[in-house]
Amino acid sequence: METVFDHGISNSEIRQIGFLDKEKYLQVVDEQSSRFDLALLYHLRGELEKVNEYLEGLPPIVVNDFWRTVTHP
Prior knowledge:
Layout: H1 11-17, H2 22-28, H3 31-44, H4 48-55, H5 60-71
Helix pairs in contact: 3-4, 3-5
């Protein structure tokens, strides 16, 4: 499964997204959460095409939650 750790996430980005350390994260993350986090990472980086790529195929409620999260901090 692809995660943010496969995409060169920085310590600053980890703090901004706000999750556990790498080992704990990899123990608990599932496919849906990983895609959500990847979308968050690319939103932070300003790469909207990548955001949409990772949101594609997720349930609409999850996609709505993503946009609520990033537009209403």
